[in-house]
Write a structure and sequence with these properties.
By secondary structure, the protein is an alpha/beta fold. It has six domains: about 230 residues, Rossmann fold; about 90 residues, Translation factors (Elongation Factor Tu (Ef-tu), domain 3, Beta Barrel), CATH 2.40.30; about 70 residues, Alpha-Beta Plaits, CATH 3.30.70.870; about 140 residues, Ribosomal Protein S5, domain 2, CATH 3.30.230.10; about 90 residues, 2-Layer Sandwich (Alpha-Beta Plaits), CATH 3.30.70.240; about 160 residues, Rossmann fold. Helices cover about 35% and strands about 25% of the residues. The chain contains 28 helices and 39 strands. Strands 2-3-1-4-5-7-6 form a seven-stranded mixed beta sheet, sandwiched between helices. Helix 13 crosses helix 14, helix 22 packs across helix 28 and helix 24 runs antiparallel to helix 25. The longest helix has 21 residues.
C-alpha cells in the first residue's frame, strides 16, 4: 500500500453511520457478511448495551484496503450524550467522514460535530445517506447542508469534467480557479490540496443499506485524500517515538488498554516509554503488548510506526488526551465538550464504599469527563453526565461489569463563575524559612476561552524558572469562584509581579502563593455566575406553538419567528439549560407525542436567575479551608495568617495595577467614591432633609452594640449587600443611564405592589420619588418607562421630575418595545443599565450593548445606597 490514513466516521443519531461503516468494510472485502444495527449483529456494535439500544457508545477501529490506500476507520458514537467519546477520537484522525441523513437533513448534533471539526481544521468528506428514502434530490440536499453548515460543499458524485463540479471547486479555491483558467482543466493535486486545507468539502450520495454510492465514496477518498506522511511532512519512522493516547479501555479479562496513535518514530514491544503520571511527573513504563484491533478482535504485532493506531498494555499511568514518548511533556488535551449536569450516584446493594469508589475510578479513567467527586459524600459519589441516555448506559455498565445496581439522585446544573472586570490578587507565603509572593491580574476572558495564563515580568526581576513554575501552578488546578464555589472559567490570569528569596524559596512556596493570589483576587473581584445555554429547534403542531413560546419566554429563552411547515411549526432559539433539560417530556405531553425538540450546547453565558442560585447555595467562601485568599507572613519568627482583605497592608510588593494607572487598591471601601457623588449633588443638610422626609428621621448618637457572630441569614444579607456595593461602584457616574421598567419594579416590591392595587397613581408617584432621590445620590441619568395602557394618555408623553425622565408609552406600544428602541439608540454612546425582571426585556437590552439587572437586585441596591447615606449622615451630624 502506498499510503495509509485514519478516517473518523461521525454523524447524528439514525443517520446510518454504523451501517455505512459496515458497507465500506463489505465493499473492501474486510467482512463477508453484512450485519444490521436493528438486528443487533453489526460488526461494530459489540457491547450488550449497544446491541440493546441500537446505538454506538464506544469508538472502535478497523482497517480496510482500497486501491492503493490502507484506511483505518474509527467508528464514533452519534448520540449527544456520548459526544466526549467522539471528540477524543478527533485528536488522532487525518480526515473525517460526516454522515447526514437524506431524510432528516443536518441535525443539532451535526452542528456540534461540524463545530468541532472546524475548530481542529480537520478535512472532511460528506456522505448523504438514505437517498432511497429521501424526497429531496442531490441539489436540494446540497442546498440544505450549505444553509445549515456554511459554504465549501461540492458534489463529487459527478464527473470531474462536469460543469457543476468545475464551477464548485473553482468558486471555493482561488488556486484551482487560476489553474483552470490557464489550462482549462482541474489538476488532481490541486483538489487534494484544497480538500486538505478545508477549502472544499466533497459531498457524495447513496444508500448504505443497499450498497449504493459506497464504492464511489471509497474511490473518492482513495483518490483525493493524502496519506499520513504527506499530511505530516518531515515525520519519519526513524524519529524518536511520540504517540497520542485517545482512549483508555479494558478487555474481557479486565486488562488495561491504552489506545494510541503513533505520531512519529516507531513503537516496539518491550520499549520503555515516557509518560506523565497523575502527580505530573515524567516516568518510564514498559510496553508489554501491541494490539491491532479490528472491531472486537485483535492481532498482536511486534512494532508499529508513525501513522498507525493500536492498543498497548503496560503503560499503567497513561490517560486519555496525553502524549507518550517525545510528546509526554505536552499538556493533556481536555476537549471542548463538557457535561453540564451533576448527579449523586449511590449503590443500592450492599457494596463496600471503598470498592464502589475504586470501580467509579475505573470508569473515570475510561471517560475523564465523569469527574468523580467524593466531597461531602458518606455513601456514594458525585458524577457528571451529559444526559439521561448516558445515565441509563452507565447504570447498565455498572451492573454488567461490577455486579451491583446503583441509584441516581436528581441531577443539578453545573454552574461556573467568572469575573467581569480586572482585579489584582496577591498571595504571600512566608512561614519560617520559606518565602514567595505572587501578584496576578485576573481579567475577563472571551466566552468559552477557559483559563488563559501569561506573564509580563522581565526575567531580570523574577527568574524564568520561577515564572514557569507559577504558570504551571495556574494550569494544574481547577479554581473555584466565591459566589457559589463553582469552577472558574473565561478569565485571563497575568503574572504581574513576583518575588523569591535567595535562600529560603522552595518550589512548593510558589504553589501556595499562586493559589492564594487567585483566591485573593476573586474575593475582591466582581464575579458573575455562568450557566449552560443551548440552541434549540422545536417542531410541533401549529395549534401548540403558543404554549411553546410562552414556556420559552418564561424560562428566559429567546426565539426567532416561527416557520410553518404544513400543520406543523418550527421554532428556533436559545435558552438556558434549566428550561431545556426536561422539556421533551413536557412537549410530548401537551402535543400528544407529536412534538420534538433537538438542542445543541452553545456554551456558558450569564445566569438568568443568578440571585436565586446564590440564595439557594450553601457555599461560604470565607469558610472554605481548601481554597483561601488569606496569606501567611513571618512575624516574630513564626508564620502569621493575614486575612484576604488585610493582605494589602502587609504585602512586600506594590500593586501592579496601582503603579500603571494610579487606581486605588480594589480592597478599599467604595464609600469614598459613592459619597463623593452624593456630596456633588447636595449639601449635608439638603441630603438630611430629603431622606428624613422620604424615609423617616435618622436617630442621633446611637450607642455602639457589640453584635454576636452573625447568623447564616444575616451573613447572606451581608454578602448580598457586599455585591450590591460593587454594583453601586460601577454605576456611580454621570455617564451611567438607568432605564427602568416601571410597573415591573412596582410589582417586585411588596409595599408598592399592595399600594398599586388601591391606587396605581400613588404607587407610581412613590416609585418616582424613590428613583429621583437614588438618581441624585449616584449622579446618573434615570428614565422610568410605564406602559400606556395603565394610564389615560393613549398618545404617550414624556416629562421630567427632579432631573428624572418619566415616559408613558403610546397606546399601542409596550414598555418592552420602548426600552428596546431606547437602548438601541443610546447603548453605543452611554453606559446603559436596564432594570427589569422580564426576560424578554433583558435579552433585547443585552443585544443592544446594555447591562441588565433584575428588579429584585435593583431594590437591594437602592436599600444599600440609602443605608450608606444614613451611615454617612450619622457620622457627620
Amino acid at each position: 500500500m502506498s499510503k495509509k490514513l485514519t478516517m473518523g466516521i461521525l454523524a447524528h443519531v439514525d443517520a446510518g453511520k454504523t451501517t455505512l461503516s459496515e458497507a465500506m468494510l463489505y465493499s473492501a472485502g474486510t467482512i463477508r457478511k453484512l450485519g444490521r444495527v436493528d438486528k443487533g449483529d453489526s460488526f461494530f456494535d459489540n457491547y450488550e448495551v449497544e446491541k440493546n439500544r441500537g446505538i454506538t457508545v464506544f469508538s472502535k477501529q478497523v482497517g480496510l484496503n482500497w486501491q492503493d490506500s490502507h484506511i483505518t476507520i474509527l467508528d464514533t458514537p452519534g448520540h449527544d450524550d456520548f459526544s466526549a467519546e467522539m471528540e477524543r477520537a478527533l485528536d488522532v484522525i487525518d480526515y473525517a467522514l460526516l454522515v447526514v441523513s437524506g431524510v432528516d437533513g443536518p441535525q443539532s448534533h451535526t452542528d456540534t460535530v461540524w463545530r468541532l471539526l472546524r475548530a481542529r481544521k480537520i478535512p472532511t468528506f460528506i456522505f448523504v445517506n438514505k437517498m432511497d428514502l429521501a424526497i429531496a434530490d442531490k441539489e436540494e440536499q446540497l442546498s440544505r447542508i450549505k444553509g445549515r453548515l456554511g459554504e465549501g460543499f461540492v458534489d463529487f458524485s459527478v464527473a470531474k469534467e462536469d460543469e457543476a463540479f468545475v464551477d464548485g471547486v473553482t468558486f471555493y479555491s482561488p488556486e484551482l480557479a487560476e489553474a483552470f483558467f490557464e489550462n482549462l482543466e482541474i489538476p488532481s493535486e490541486g483538489i487534494l490540496k484544497a480538500i486538505a486545507e478545508c477549502q472544499i468539502f466533497p459531498c457524495l450520495f447513496g444508500s448504505a443499506l443497499h450498497q449504493e454510492g459506497v464504492d464511489k465514496l471509497l474511490d473518492t477518498i482513495s483518490t483525493y485524500a493524502y496519506g499520513f506522511y504527506e499530511l505530516h511532512e518531515g515525520v519519519s519512522p526513524e524519529d524518536k517515538m511520540g504517540a497520542l493516547v485517545y482512549k483508555i479501555a479494558r478487555d474481557q479479562r479486565d486488562e488495561r488498554l491504552s489506545f494510541v496513535r503513533v505520531m512519529n518514530g516507531t513503537l516496539k514491544v518491550r520499549d520503555s516509554i515516557a509518560v506523565r503520571n497523575s502527580d505530573g511527573e515524567i516516568v518510564h513504563e514498559k510496553v508489554n503488548q501491541i494490539r491491532i484491533y479490528s472491531g472486537q478482535k485483535y492481532s498482536l504485532v511486534d512494532s508499529v510506526s508513525a501513522g498507525d493506531i493500536c492498543a498497548i498494555t503496560g503503560a499503567g499511568s497513561s490517560r486519555a488526551g496525553q502524549g507518550l514518548g517525545t510528546l509526554a511533556e505536552n499538556e493533556a488535551r481536555n476537549g471542548i465538550i463538557e457535561p453540564f449536569i451533576t448527579y449523586k450516584i449511590v449503590p443500592i446493594d450492599d457494596v463496600d464504599q471503598n470498592k464502589f469508589i475504586s470501580d467509579m475510578r475505573v470508569l473515570e479513567e475510561e471517560d475523564p469527563k465523569l469527574h468523580i467527586d467524593l466531597e461531602d459524600n458518606i455513601r456514594g459519589v458525585n458524577i457528571r453526565l451529559m444526559g439521561e441516555v448516558q445515565q441509563e448506559i452507565l447504570e447498565s455498565q455498572i451492573m454488567s461489569r461490577f455486579g451491583y445496581g446503583v441509584r441516581f439522585e436528581t441531577g443539578s446544573i453545573i454552574y461556573k463563575e467568572t469575573v467581569i472586570e480586572p482585579v489584582e490578587g496577591v498571595g504571600h507565603f512566608e512561614p519560617l524559612r520559606h518565602y514567595a509572593e505572587v501578584h496576578l491580574i485576573i481579567s475577563p476572558g472571551e466566552r468559552g476561552s477557559g483559563i488563559v495564563t501569561d506573564s509580563e515580568i522581565p526575567e531580570d526581576v523574577l527568574g524564568r524558572n520561577w515564572q514557569n513554575l507559577i504558570l504551571s501552578h495556574l494550569d494544574e488546578r481547577i479554581f473555584h469562584g466565591v459566589l457559589i464555589g463553582a469552577p472558574l472559567t473565561d478569565v485571563h490570569s497575568t503574572l504581574a509581579a513576583g518575588k523569591a528569596h535567595d535562600k529560603h524559596t522552595e518550589g512548593g512556596d510558589f504553589r501556595q502563593a499562586t493559589y492564594r493570589a487567585v483566591r485573593n483576587g476573586l474575593m475582591r473581584a466582581r464575579c458573575h455566575i455562568l450557566e449552560p445555554w443551548f440552541s434549540f429547534e422545536i417542531k410541533l403542531p401549529s395549534a401548540n406553538i403558543g404554549m411553546a413560546m410562552t414556556d420559552i419566554k418564561n424560562g428566559s429563552g429567546t426565539f426567532d419567528e416561527p416557520k410553518v411547515d404544513g400543520d406543523m411549526s418550527i421554532l428556533n432559539g436559545k435558552a438556558p439549560a434549566a428550561l431545556i433539560l426536561d422539556y421533551q417530556r413536557k412537549l410530548t405531553s401537551y402535543t400528544g407525542g407529536r412534538g420534538r425538540i433537538s438542542c445543541m450546547l452553545i456554551g456558558y453565558d450569564f445566569c438568568h436567575n443568578e440571585a436565586e442560585v446564590i440564595e439557594d447555595s450553601v457555599y461560604d467562601a470565607d469558610k472554605d479551608e481548601i481554597e483561601t485568599g488569606d496569606s501567611i507572613f513571618c512575624h516574630h519568627g513564626a508564620g502569621k495568617t493575614v486575612k484576604w482583605d488585610e493582605v494589602h497592608d502587609f504585602m512586600h510588593l506594590p500593586y501592579a495595577l496601582d503603579s500603571e494607572d494610579g487606581a486605588k487598591g480594589k480592597s478599599s471601601s467604595i464609600r469614598d467614591e459613592t459619597m463623593a457623588a452624593g456630596r456633588k449633588l447636595a449639601s449635608d443638610a439638603e441630603l438630611l432633609a430629603i431622606f428624613e422626609k422620604t424615609y423617616g428621621s435618622i436617630s442621633k448618637n446611637k450607642p455602639v452594640k457589640h453584635k454576636a457572630k452573625p447568623t447564616e441569614s444575616e451573613y447572606r444579607a451581608m454578602e448580598r449587600q457586599k455585591r450590591s456595593l460593587h454594583r453601586l461602584e460601577r454605576v456611580a457616574s454621570p455617564d451611567s443611564h438607568f432605564v427602568v421598567d416601571g410597573y415591573n419594579l412596582i410589582n417586585a416590591e411588596e409595599h408598592m405592589k399592595a399600594l398599586s392595587r388601591a391606587d396605581i397613581g400613588a404607587a407610581r408617584e412613590h416609585l418616582v420619588n424613590i428613583l429621583a432621590n437614588y438618581r441624585g445620590y449616584l449622579g446618573c441619568k434615570m428614565t422610568i418607562v410605564f406602559d400606556a395602557y395603565r394610564v389615560p394618555y393613549s398618545f404617550g408623553r414624556t416629562y421630567t421630575i427632579n432631573d428624572t425622565e418619566i415616559v408613558y408609552t403610546k397606546g399601542n406600544e409596550t414598555a418592552d418595545a420602548y426600552i428596546a428602541e431606547l437602548t438601541k439608540a443610546i447603548g453605543k454612546r452611554e453606559s446603559v443599565t436596564v432594570v427589569s425582571s422580564d426576560s424578554l426585556v433583558q435579552e433585547m437590552s443585552l443585544g443592544h450593548g446594555a447591562l441588565r439587572i433584575s428588579s429584585r437586585e435593583f431594590l437591594i441596591d437602592i436599600e444599600t445606597a440609602l443605608q450608606e447615606i444614613r451611615d454617612f449622615l450619622d457620622e457627620n451630624r
